[in-house]
C-alpha cells in the first residue's frame, strides 16, 4: 500500500510538473494531492480490470520518472524524455479508459498542473 501511495504521488507530481521546476511538496500539499487523487479515482468508477491496468501504467511511468530524475541529462533532454513518457502514458490510458473516463483523466491532469503552478508561484514569493 505504501508503494501504491508513493506511486500515486509520483503520478500527481509528474503530471503537473515541468522538469524545470524542482520543488518539494510539503506534507500538507502531499495529503491534499492524495485526497484529490482518491476523489478522482472514485469519480472514474474503474472496474477491477481497469484498476490493475491503470496501476501498471502508473508504475511504469513512475519508474521512468525516477530514472529521469537521477539522469545527468540536460534540462532539454530531460524535458523531451518526460514528454515521451507522458505521451506514452496518455496513449495507454486512452486504451484502458472509456471516452468519458479519459476526458475526466485529462481534466484531472489539467487541474493538478494548475494547482502545482499556483503552489510554485506562492512558494517562490516566500
Automatic annotation (TrEMBL):
Keywords: Signal
Superkingdom, taxonomy of origin: Bacteria
Signal sequence segment: 1-21
The keyword Signal is assigned to this record: yes
Protein name: DUF4890 domain-containing protein
Organism: Pararcticibacter amylolyticus
Amino acid at each position: 500500500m505504501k508503494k501504491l501511495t508513493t506511486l500515486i504521488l509520483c503520478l500527481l507530481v509528474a503530471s503537473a510538473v515541468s522538469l524545470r521546476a524542482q520543488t518539494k511538496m510539503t506534507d500538507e500539499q502531499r495529503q491534499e494531492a492524495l485526497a484529490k487523487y482518491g476523489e478522482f479515482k472514485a469519480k472514474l468508477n474503474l472496474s477491477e480490470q481497469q484498476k490493475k491496468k491503470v496501476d501498471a501504467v502508473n508504475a511504469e511511468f513512475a519508474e521512468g520518472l525516477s530514472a529521469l530524475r537521477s539522469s545527468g541529462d540536460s534540462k532539454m533532454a530531460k524535458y523531451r524524455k518526460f514528454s515521451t513518457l507522458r505521451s506514452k502514458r496518455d496513449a495507454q490510458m486512452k486504451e484502458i479508459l472509456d471516452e468519458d473516463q479519459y476526458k475526466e483523466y485529462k481534466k484531472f491532469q489539467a487541474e493538478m498542473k494548475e494547482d502545482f503552478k499556483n503552489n510554485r508561484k506562492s512558494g517562490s514569493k516566500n
